[in-house]
Amino acid sequence: MSVKITQFEAENVKRIKAVQIIPAENGLTLIGGDNNQGKTSVLDSIAWALGGDKFRPAAAQRDGANAPAHLRVVLSNGCIVERKGKNSALTVTDPTGKRAGQQLLNEFVEALALDLPRFMNANDREKADTLLKIIGVGDMLACIDREIKQVYDKRTAIGQIAESKQHYADEMLEYPEAPSAPIFATELIRRQQDILARNGENQRKRDLAAQLEQQVHLLQQKVDNLAEQLREASEACSKAMQDLETARKSASDLQDESTAELEADLQNIEETNRKVRANMDKARAEDEARQLAEQYKQLTENINALRAKRTALLNGADLPLPGLGVDDGRLTYNGHQWNDMSGSDQLRVATAIVRKLNPNCGFVLLDKLEQMDLRTLREFGAWLEGEGLQAIATRVSTGGECRIIIEDGRVRGQDTETRLEATTPRQWMKGEF
Ligand SMILES: Nc1ncnc2c1ncn2[C@@H]1O[C@H](COP(=O)(O)OP(=O)(O)OP(=O)(O)O)[C@@H](O)[C@H]1O
Ligand SMILES: [Mg+2]
Asked: Which of 100, 309, 373, 381 gets the most CB atoms within 10 Å of its CB?
């Protein structure tokens, strides 16, 4: 059973002259009043009484008081806490009547319940850390978040490379008419040399024919000039003429082949190969871009799987308030981050989380509830009651929603004799205001 404040009395603390309060066991006890009347001083006094010296107000003793500050808190577990005397010394009496100290109080007093602004003013990550500490999945979630960040960063880098590679490939020239592999000059040169060799052979035969023709000519001269040698010369001449005939025949069938086409091909070879290389580069770039796009898709699937895992982890946790979560290391409520929550939602979230921090602590102090309209106040009060939580809160108002009105450091209508009667709980939560 969590511990509540059953009764509170203070004298001469900060703005308080004398105040005695019996808060409702569950739900909201609103302390109203105009500005500067001592509302916050009441909460500060409770915090000092229960939270120890670190909650001691800077000017704890009321100016002009002729008696020392005095605080007395009766708790629902039977403990009685007092600060009195010149040094405001602490006395804690346990339920059996034995003396105890701050250590006993710390077992059921949650420091953040005495100082909710400290939680509310913490940054988003600190709030999320507090929640994760409560639900006990912080390490696993941080691990998943780190993994998501790593894969996400990797995917971003791959995506950028894939995109620029694709741009690069798109801008490269392409030659559809070029062959698919580079061609080499050696084969063409070999064919050219064969033809040139055959043509050389032809030339040699032509030269031979020309020589024989010359010889016939000389011999005919010899026939003319040398009658005596006519017969031999005639024979030689006839033979030479026969040879000449054969040679002529063989030379007349010969035809030279053209190397023009090969020469043109040789000239074009470099240009063709340049196009072939360009096509190969483009194909390679496109292939790389395709592979990177495939990797990007795979990484997206990894991120989605990790996100599903973290959602499952949070869904499976025992949350202080349905709708709470942690997104990218920041606390969220119904999908909104702290700054996007309404003021009343912020209060509800803070109260729920702080309550879970120490379930033995059944109360929380809330200053400045002006931001809540009456309907929201009533809803908040009903929620607190449902949670079995006691909230002692202040509000600049003298309306009927306030169970207690503080005026000039006192509870309105409360004098020394009738203190408690004036603070008897009313049925205000049931819609009186
Ligand atoms: N030790 C002290 N003795 C006398 N007055 C003090 C002391 N400490 C603070 N005060 C005065 O108390 C007043 C503030 O009291 P408190 O904060 O309790 O009022 P409040 O009702 O909460 O006001 P608000 O509505 O503005 O929040 C200030 O005027 C401050 O100067
Ligand atoms: Mg105040």
From this structure: 381
Measured between alpha carbons, how far is 251 from 129 in angstroms, rounded to an integer? 105
- Is residue 411 within 8 A of residue 29, CB to CB? The reply is no
- Residue 32 CA, ligand 2 centroid: distance in Å: 10
Strand pairing class (5-11; 18-21): antiparallel
CATH 3.40.50.300 fits 5-109+358-429, yes or no: yes
CA–centroid distance, 271 to ligand 2, in Å, is 88
Q: For 152-206, what is each residue's pLDDT tens digit? A: 999 999 999 999 999 999 999 999 998 888 888 888 899 899 999 999 999 999 9
Position in ligand 1 atom list of the atom nearest CA 44: 18
Q: Are 134 and 356 in contact (CB under 8 A)?
A: yes
Residue 125 sits at the vertex; the CA angle it makes with 123 and 131, to the nearest 5 degrees, is 110
154 close to 161: Cβ distance less than 8 angstroms: no
Query: Could you read off the pLDDT of 105-136 as tens digits, one per residue?
Result: 999 999 999 999 899 999 998 999 889 888 88
Which residue in 118, 98, 133 sits closest to 47, CA to CA?
Answer: 118
Binding-site residues, ligand 1, Cβ < 6 A = 14-15, 33, 35-41, 59, 61-63, 394, 396
Ligand nearest 367 Cα, by number?
2
In whole angstroms, what is the distance from residue 11 CA to residue 45 CA? 9
Question: Domain boundaries in the chain?
Answer: 5-109+358-429, 154-298
Q: pLDDT digits over 87-110, tens only?
A: 999 999 999 999 999 999 999 999
**String of DSSP letters for 9-67:** EEESBTT-SEEEE---SSEEEEEEESTTSSHHHHHHHHHHHHH-GGG--TT-BPTT-SS
Written as six digits, the tokens of 320 are: 């202080």
